[in-house]
Amino acid sequence: DLDWWLDRLTCYGSLFLGEETTVSYGDKASGTNHVLPTSGAANYTGGLSVHKYMKIVTWQRATREGSKPVAEATARISRLEGMEGHARAADVRLAKYFPDEEFDLTADG
Q: Which of 17, 22, 94, 108 has a Cα at 20 to 30 A from 3?
């Protein structure tokens, strides 16, 4: 029950809800910031932001179809930056949700 977690968790940089999202998406394409504040600051502030005097937290949820273009962009950007683990997180979701489709997920895509 993803809403249960969303309603109850309060101290995080970003919350990725469900297997249709991944930290790789937040790093490369969807825009949610998940970098946690240090020294216990997560008790009163969210992830890195210019809003340092406000508690801002971000979260993401996606449908399988909606995550398709985000996964493609994440895979390509990650490969361009040499971050193969992030790319594979996107690859795995595309293969799982769209097994009959082929994607060009190379850096040249």
A: 94
**pTM score, two decimals?**
0.57
SS3 letters for the chain?
CHHHHHHHCCCCCEEECCCCCCHHHHHHCCCCCCCCCCCCHHHCCCCCCCCCCCCCCEEECCCHHHHHHHHHHHHHHHHHCCCHHHHHHHHHHHHHHCCCCCCCCCCCC
Q: Are 6 and 17 in contact (CB under 8 A)?
A: yes
The pLDDT tens digits along the chain (109 residues) read: 999 999 999 877 778 899 998 888 887 887 666 566 667 777 777 666 555 556 777 889 999 999 999 999 999 999 999 999 999 999 999 999 999 999 998 877 6
Pairing of strands 58-60, 14-16: parallel
